[in-house]
């Protein structure tokens, strides 16, 4: 593959608003704005937040608020949700919120939609109440959103004000083949959560492309893959920095979630062989190393899967190391 291939690929950021051990959510948000401003200067295409609830180490429970904060502190980068868990909300409320954002920051707001609760079952019940099974309405609720955003809805009894008549791109997010079929059926762009759910990535994007129906929104399939990125000056340094995200995923599989921990020199003191294998399986689509290492691996990834855009998420404890990783990663596309 020639070096020019990466030059044609847009690169973006997914921010989970991870809270660092020893710090508060307020510190996380300041760090996010610093990363977003740097990302804009480095030519990143989008900056997205994901909706999560009842997780002490993740402060992105209100992504629409964070989107406004980041969009207000930047000028050109697209800002959006990766995603809003639509069954947690009524389509009208989402349309009004994103209509407000798109009115404040024209041609810069993306609306990525998922169907999972973004939390545990008990919290999902607290959020959804009698609408606990609302995930079954996901396809219909997307259609309601599209109707609310349409100019033709002006004669309806229920209108999104603001929101009606605005061009707010809708994305389908997924970690399974069901989402791929839905995105294909509706002719919408598709973002896959390969950063934590690698199992169905290859199958899902194949289903999406093979079943895609052109729409007024999109003429041909568009796949964005989210991956983990930890870049440093050397492979060894990146490996050490990556211990923070590995400990985070270890907490996921053991049920012992904690705030994001500082890097450690030797992960073997923190996990057994089975835990190591489980974490590495979840982190299968991770790019960890020097700029040259990541560039070579990313070229292979793009060549194999033909994705249209790459979205990086980086769980690095040290803010300066995270900024440096962000800089190095952008450099591989130039």
From TrEMBL:
Residues 18-299 form the Luciferase-like domain. GO terms for cellular component: cytosol. Gene3D superfamilies: Luciferase-like domain. This is Luciferase-like monooxygenase. One of its GO terms (molecular function) is oxidoreductase activity, acting on paired donors, with incorporation or reduction of molecular oxygen. SUPFAM superfamilies: Bacterial luciferase-like. Pfam families: Bac_luciferase. To bacterial alkanal monooxygenase alpha and beta chains. InterPro entries: Bact_Lucif_Oxidored, CmoO-like, Luciferase-like_dom, Luciferase-like_sf.
């Amino acid at each position: 593959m020639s070096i020019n291939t990466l030059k044609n690929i847009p690169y973006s950021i997914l921010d989970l608003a991870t809270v660092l051990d020893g710090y508060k959510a307020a510190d996380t948000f300041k760090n996010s704005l610093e990363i977003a401003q740097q990302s804009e200067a480095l030519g990143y295409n989008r900056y997205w937040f994901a909706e999560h609830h009842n997780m002490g180490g993740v402060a992105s429970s209100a992504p629409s608020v964070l989107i406004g904060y980041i969009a207000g502190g930047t000028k050109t980068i697209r800002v959006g949700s990766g995603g809003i868990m639509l069954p947690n909300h009524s389509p009208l409320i989402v349309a009004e919120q994103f209509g407000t954002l798109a009115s404040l920051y024209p041609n810069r707001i993306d609306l990525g939609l998922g169907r999972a609760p973004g939390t545990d079952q008990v919290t999902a019940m607290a959020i959804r109440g009698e609408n606990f099974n609302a995930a079954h309405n996901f396809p219909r609720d997307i259609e309601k959103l599209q109707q609310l955003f349409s100019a033709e809805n002006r004669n309806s009894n229920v209108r999104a004000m603001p929101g009606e008549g605005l061009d707010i791109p809708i994305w389908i997010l997924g970690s399974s083949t069901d989402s791929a079929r839905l995105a294909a059926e509706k002719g919408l762009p598709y973002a896959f959560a390969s950063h934590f759910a690698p199992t169905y990535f290859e199958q899902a994007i194949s289903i999406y492309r093979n079943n895609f129906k052109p729409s007024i929104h999109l003429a041909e399939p568009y796949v964005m893959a989210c991956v983990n990125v930890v870049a440093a000056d050397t492979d060894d340094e990146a490996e050490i920095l990556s211990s923070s995200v590995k400990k985070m995923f270890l907490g996921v599989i053991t049920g012992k979630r904690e705030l994001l921990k500082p890097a450690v020199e030797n992960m073997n003191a923190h996990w057994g062989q089975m835990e190591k294998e489980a974490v590495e399986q979840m982190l299968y689509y991770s790019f960890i190393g020097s700029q040259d290492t990541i560039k070579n691996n990313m070229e292979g990834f793009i060549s194999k899967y033909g994705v249209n855009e790459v979205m990086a998420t980086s769980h690095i404890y040290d803010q300066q190391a995270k900024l440096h990783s962000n800089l190095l990663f952008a450099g591989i596309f130039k």
